[in-house]
Specification:
The chain is an alpha/beta fold. It has helices at about 45-50, 80-90, 105-115, 120-130, 135-140, 150-165, 180-195, 210-215, 230-235, 240-250; strands at about 5-15, 20-30, 35-40, 60-70, 75, 90, 170-175, 200-205, 215-220, 225-230. The protein has a domain at about 5-95 and about 170-250: Rossmann fold, CATH 3.40.50.300. It has ten helices and ten strands.
């Protein structure tokens, strides 16, 4: 399979006011591969992830320098429609955040916002998305019940289904299992592996074992800098830099 680059950044800097949170991040994300971003808390992984679909635009006083491209499109070009960017680059957050609506409406919402009116089409996509997120069998008889009645792990898979409903090309996942129990975490990890045959996935995780289990490539961040990126097996077994080795073996962080 060809390793096409789906997204990349070049010399990306990010500032919260005067504070520089990211320094010259240059990185490629391969199509239909899972890339994990690891590093201690506050090292910039989530900030970087949110640069990739311009979620940081929602925070006042922030600014970006450098380039971030989806295929050949500069996502920070002023002419870019951010709503359509976020449709192509979906996101799943650390805490499940279902809307206070029915399970069905949670998934249908994005389609309706994007102008889909055909009820049969909406029903079909809702079912397909819930199946892709491996939760259909658990909710198919409860589609009109509130999504808030689901367990935490089910809510997170529902949020993944919601992101999948608009057919994204890239899925950003910000510690999607950190609030979940081990069994729910296992389900999310299995889902990541399965979805990677269709999507480019970029996942921030605190859990190095999780990065080792689900990702093809891993990037180590520290103090707002990208220290090292490589195939996951290589990074964990033969890191090039002592700093990476120290973090992976638990000597710091």
């Amino acid at each position: 399979m060809e390793n096409n680059i789906k997204m990349h950044t070049r010399d990306l800097d990010f500032f919260y006011g005067e504070f520089q949170a990211l320094h010259h991040i240059s990185m490629d994300f391969l199509e239909k591969r899972v890339t994990a971003l690891i590093g201690p808390s506050g090292c910039g992984k989530s900030t970087y992830l949110r640069c990739l679909n311009r979620m940081n635009d929602l925070i006042s006083g922030t600014r970006v320098k450098g380039n971030a491209l989806l295929d050949d499109m500069d996502i920070y070009d002023p002419a870019i429609d951010v709503v359509s960017l976020r449709r192509r680059v979906g996101m799943v957050f650390q805490k499940p955040n279902p809307f206070p609506k029915s399970i069905f409406e949670n998934i249908a919402y994005g389609l309706k916002v994007n102008g889909v009116r055909d009820k049969a089409k909406i029903t079909q996509v809702v079912e397909k998305s819930l199946k892709q997120a491996a939760i259909w069998d658990e909710v198919k008889d409860r589609l009109n019940e509130s999504a808030l009645g689901l367990s935490g792990g089910q809510q997170q898979r529902l949020c993944i289904a919601r992101a999948l409903a608009v057919d994204p090309e890239v899925l950003l996942m910000d510690e999607p299992a950190s609030a979940l129990d081990p069994i729910a975490t296992q389900k999310i990890e299995a889902l990541v592996t399965e979805l990677s045959s269709k999507l480019t996935i970029i996942i921030v995780t605190h859990n190095m074992q999780q990065a080792a289990r689900v990702s093809d490539r891993t990037a180590f961040f520290y103090m707002g800098k990208l220290i090292e990126v490589n195939d996951t097996d290589t990074l964990f077994t033969k890191p090039e830099l002592k700093q990476t080795e120290d973090y992976i073996t638990g000597r710091f962080g």
